[in-house]
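Progress report, Aim 2. The chain analyzed during this reporting quarter is listed below.
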Amino acid sequence: MQSQKKYQPTFSIEFFPPKTEEGKAKLRKTREDLAKLNPAFISVTYGAGGSTQQGTVDTVLEIQQSGIDAAPHLTCVGASKESIRDLLQTYIDNGIHRIVALRGDMPSGMREMGEFRYANELVTFIRAETGDHFHIEVAAYPEIHPQASSVSADLDHFRLKVEAGANSAITQYFFNADAYYRFVDDCEKMGLDIPIVPGIMPITNYKNLARFSDMCGAEIPRWLRKRLEDFGDDVESLRTFGQQATTQLCKNLLEQGAPGLHFYSMNRADPIRAIWRDLLQV
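Predicted structure tokens for the chain:
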């Protein structure tokens, strides 16, 4: 963890673009509530194969115009160089200086990858087109990408993204801090030296969390899974326990030198405000 301790911790939040007018209004309220916490930036996801492209652009520009630094996700699956070039220009024209560059998921029914296969190719393209204009975030997987053939292959993919020009990384969320510490140690042995910020998922609904975690390869440790199962339909007690467990995870990570935290908000303010309040005494 020595490589991470030299970085000033940053705290950031992720939204997804709403699809309805009601969702837009709710997200606007969430953004206003969380802006009071002074996040370093707010990122906005980009659906499989760019399926939420316009929603992402609209949400990003609104966030940026509100005075908060916005960081659009940009995925390369199914994308052409021309479409990526156009998006980059839109973001440059609107004062965006941070990009989250990802491979992305293949939408159902799509057979062609597009002109990019992997995130490192997207990072290389962004650097070639825009130089150092953007601070480029990439993804990291402390518990190994679910499609990786091996640990070493997954680390090699991460190395390629760093060598292509990534400035920092945000991890998939996790509940096992040791997986993160080991991942950072492995990166240090490879000579990789960028901030690797832990992704944090608040615990508010066990069934949804378990389903999503199974899909993305994030392990819920047995002790935590059993505790959450025991709450059954007692939502209030589950959320109280989840807040305590997540806050303790965050404290441990920061004490060991993690260079900040990136909160997956699911477009809700209260869970993050509660953790932030307990963690930072806001």
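The radius of gyration is 18 Å. DSSP finds eleven helices and eight strands in the chain. These observations will guide the mutagenesis work planned for the next reporting period.
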